[in-house]
Amino acid sequence: MDEAVVWLTIFILSVFVGIEVISKVSSTLHTPLMSGANAIHGIILLGAVLVTGSTDNDVALVVGLVAIVLAAVNMVGGFVVTDRMLQMFVRKKPKPAPVPTEGGNA
Amino acid sequence: MPTWVQLVYLACAICFILALKGLSGPKTARAGNLIGAAAAVVAVIVPFIYLDLDHVVLILVAIAIGTAGGVVGAQRVQMTQMPQMVALFNGVGGGAAALVALVELQEMLPHVDSIDWFTLAATAFTIAVGSISFAGSIVTFAKLQELMTSRPVVFPGLPIIFGVAGLATITLGVLTVTSPAIWIGIVLALLGLAIGLLLVLPVGGADVPIVISLLNAFTGLTVAAGGYVLSNVVLLVAGTLVGASGTYLTMLMANAMGRSVSNILFGALKGGSTLGAGVASDRPVKSAGPEDIAILLGYADRVIIVPGYGLAVAQAQHTLRELVDVLIARGTKVDYAIHPVAGRMPGHMNVLLAEAQVPYEQLVEMDDINGEFKHTDVVLVVGANDVVNPAAKTTPGAPIYGMPILNADEAKQVVFMKRSMRPGFAGIENELLFEPTTTLLFGDAKDSLGKLLNAVKAL
Questions:
Q1: Residue B366 and residue B386: Cα distance in Å, rounded?
Q2: Which ipTM value was assigned to this complex?
């Protein structure tokens, strides 16, 4: 049971870290943050690879492969879509953006 | 496990913490996301190096298929559909976790006597909650994609069925520990799917984003439990981080909407839906053509734009930006008032307007702009509804009661651009539409804004 206590320690510390690191997020970033966190739990792909790579049962192999496909969609898609969202936030910093120049000759 | 592998995993875990930290600040967000992605890729490559994995070719093919699907989906999705995309990605992640736990249960069975009870309990948890997350996310996807009604779906006996399914799940969870068998795992997965459906069906459309965030946290915890089962520290840390931050983020979002999480989830179960009737009214309203509105806008000193999801659906952000540019050139002071939950999720509207290259300084958050409506000549509401509905302040029974709103009702004139008299996403009527100071401009937002733009130019 000693080992379980070590895992419990890691778990509880991670809970506090998880809350602490995002506690100051502005509502502007809620959507990308949710999306990014979503991508991070796509790391279950690692778990899917581990179980699939060590099974010798045909049914389990198929189930494991399905899990790998789903997890890869979660992980890769999640990071790509988050990056797409965040690109738009980055672009605004330099501001050669079309400030009113055209039209409006009243 | 070799020491170097453990050290690499430790580094990955640290990178995930830095990724979340980065994602919560605007300047560091993109770097944070990339750090997370890099760590995830490294963590997945490691077992191919230090373990003698079987079925490597099949595994690589499966990864390639999933990667292709994820990239194509992520590239093709429109910014307006972002919330349902996140829901879908979250769902498949939860499903993957449940399947991993099922396979692992199968692997444990031959030597089950040497497995401690906590590992079996964690396996059962992963199967059940992963399935809940999968089914729940698919329903939220269907609601947001409007494949099904976005209104709450309730039927008599729902609380009873929900209760029975919950008890059965706990019973089977205990059975997994006492007398593990693969059929128990499979039934557990099916029950999880049913609970996921029952949990999300009664949630009304306006609350769906909060549910996505909550299910995201669920999947995180599922992955953490899976990490314990597989004795993998990266899964445990990454999953726990997402579970904890996701839960916290869910509460932040709920607060921004003036709701409590338990009310959102169980409001419908306790009788009374979370939403109103959602029927269009035939009460008289004042409407006008683009030329009249153009005069109103063109000679105003102070204009505030309230953009909503309807603007994005009509893909009218660019036309709106042009209109604002013209107004500013005429000497009008124009800002966009951004409600925290404008769009479909907190921060969604900022993404949509940034895409249309609206300068960041013109986007003003609710608390900073609410005092200014009193001194504003015209408020132009484009495709928004619930975020300016005074019922949130005045009608205690309304589903959005308590949600902070933009004080558009304090302005001298309010112009609503609407497609029809249909109520907003929350399904309740907006009294502001019937005020004498309110004028409606009916039509597709892009079309109307184009006409408005030409009319203002012609002034």
A1: 14
A2: 0.86
